[in-house]
Design brief:
The chain is α/β, with parallel strands linked by helices. It has 2 domains: 207 residues, Glycogen Phosphorylase B (Rossmann fold, 3-Layer(aba) Sandwich), CATH 3.40.50; 185 residues, Glycogen Phosphorylase B (Rossmann fold, 3-Layer(aba) Sandwich). It is built from 15 helices and 13 strands. The protein has a 7-stranded parallel β-sheet with strand order 3-2-1-4-5-6-7, with helices on both faces. Helix 1 crosses helix 15 and helix 4 packs across helix 5. It starts with a strand and ends in a 21-residue tail after the last helix.
């Protein structure tokens, strides 16, 4: 199958991670894949590092009429040059542009809208309604909230919707040794439970709420140490330091603002993982990483997190933007070592059994083959069997 992955997204986003991780596995399975993003985006370098063919001469973020017209001509030329079976449109700009190109020149190319980044529900203006109902052949969301939003806001039928969540690569969690930890170059304090949060340093991720919750635990005389891992975006290290001084928490936090070569080894040394997000987590990469590393998790009820966490087997859900509720949940887990161990084992077993990238790509292949067959009115043979591969629809879980 020939696949164009169009992803005009920020290079450090979970949506870009989702796009690249799926694209490189499509290619590994023998599909022809091209990854389109704007020249200068760090996502392109990541795609090239994954040995993906890249397209970088079209900037779908351009808004001027002249440049947009030029982009449309270039997209139509791409369709003529590569004859793709399917286009996966990950960003809003990608979706709009490819929808118009399909309507103009390529009605038999399957267009799949992928929602694995923007946490907001779909818009209801006329262009959005036309794009989703008429120009788009399938919509794949990463969580059930988006699935329901498309049904309720745009009246998209369930037959045109699928849920395919993100996955993990099990081999990334095979070496959790002390030697792997030393490669991270981080000295963690001993003698106290460690609570880790992995997230870019941005207000939407809830760092301020976590610092307030840490102050509540300290006033309750509950010993613990916090580890913040991420990269500087809207917040700087100096901002964190000011919060720590204000809350008398200078000795209670370790901040790591660089790439961690062996992140699972670091996570495996901690006792609890935290997601304090205020409204992000369309794809919660951190949640999967925590559970795969054997971390019971305290997470806010946002995005796709309840799809995994709602039954309470792997940790506790809490209200977003509520420091007291977050502190209460962390204190509850800190008070019961056996419960944390049960949650850790359950989470690890669940993710390694049901959330691998291989399983996700199985779901993706089935969706793509079915969508192409429906769009063309005829099926195309799969790479392995001559028939579309069989696996469960993600939307049916």
């Amino acid at each position: 199958m020939k696949i164009i992955v169009s992803a005009t997204l920020g290079g450090g986003s979970a949506g870009t991670w989702y796009a690249i991780e799926t694209a490189k596995r499509f290619q590994t399975r023998g599909h022809q894949v091209w990854y389109l993003s704007r020249r200068g985006h760090s996502a392109l370098e990541r795609a090239r590092a994954a040995d993906l063919r890249t397209i970088d001469h079209i900037d779908l973020e351009e808004k001027s009429p002249v440049k947009y017209y030029r982009n449309m001509r270039q997209l139509i030329e791409l369709l003529r040059q590569h004859s793709p079976d399917v286009v996966l449109a990950h960003g809003g700009e990608d979706h709009a542009a490819w929808g118009l190109a399909k309507a103009m020149r390529a009605p038999k190319v399957a267009l799949i809208r992928v929602r694995a980044l923007d946490p907001k529900p779909p818009k209801r203006h006329p262009l959005s309604i036309w794009l989703h109902s008429r120009a788009t052949d399938m919509i794949v969301t990463a969580n059930s909230r988006h699935f329901a939003a498309y049904q309720n806001r745009l009246h998209i039928p369930a037959s045109k919707l699928r849920i395919i969540e993100a996955g993990i690569e099990p081999t990334d969690y095979s070496d959790l040794s002390e030697n792997a930890m030393r490669k991270n170059g981080i000295d963690l304090p001993s003698g106290k439970p460690l609570i880790v949060m992995v997230a870019r340093f941005a207000p939407i991720k809830g760092h301020r709420v976590l610092v307030s919750a840490a102050g509540i635990l300290k006033r309750r005389d509950i010993p613990c140490h916090f580890v913040l891992v991420g990269y500087q975006k809207d917040y700087t290290i100096d901002q964190f330091k000011r919060w720590f001084v204000e809350g008398n928490l200078v000795d209670d936090f370790t901040v790591v603002d660089r790439r961690i070569p062996r992140l699972p080894a670091l996570l495996s040394r901690c006792d609890i993982g935290v997601i304090a997000s205020l409204g992000s987590e369309t794809v919660s990469r951190s949640l999967l990483e925590y559970l795969a590393s054997g971390l019971p998790t305290v997470a806010t009820d946002v995005g796709g997190i309840p799809d995994i966490m709602s039954r309470g087997e792997f940790g506790l859900l809490t209200r977003p933007d509520n420091a007291t509720a977050l502190a209460d949940a962390m204190a509850e887990l800190l008070s019961d070592d056996n419960r944390r161990l049960r949650m850790a084992n359950a989470g690890r077993n669940y993710v390694h059994s049901f959330c691998t990238w291989d399983q996700r790509v199985d779901q993706w292949e089935k969706v793509m083959y079915e969508t192409v067959a429906r769009t063309r009115g005829e099926s195309i043979p799969s790479l392995n069997s001559g028939e579309p591969p069989e696996c469960e629809h993600a939307a049916n879980h």
